Amino acid sequence: MHLAGQLGTPHTVVFAEDLSTEAILAGLRHGRSWIAESTSVHLEVTASSADRVAAVGQRLSTGGEQATVRVWVSGVPSGVVSLHTERGTVHREALPPDGTGTTRWHTTADEAGFVRVEVRHPTRQMAALTNPLILT
What we know:
The protein is mainly β. The chain contains one helix and twelve strands. The chain has a domain at 42-135: Sandwich (Immunoglobulin-like). 7% of the residues lie in helices and 48% in strands. Strands 1, 2, 5, 7, 8, 10, 11 and 12 form an eight-stranded mixed beta sheet that branches.
């Protein structure tokens, strides 16, 4: 159900090799997507451990080492970025008034088997929501 004024604005962002139907469907099948309220919201999520890096819908092998989750957001003035694992909300950070900022959170695969991101406006309305990134 859409709220008043939202019809036609939410969209799905898919990380695909190219713009072919096959590549887009492959990206969706592998969870390489996130949703946003509009094209003004931009989001980049990565997790890294040693020299390995993974993004939304991917798996990061940490080798038992600490992982750093990095979230870059723009387009959500004074919004709130929250990170969620199987344990619930594990990190929350406010964005500056211009709506562009980077959040970092450190964890291990023992502490978090996955992490997903939500970005909300100060009114708590959802601006973006990602699929999980798996940590092993």
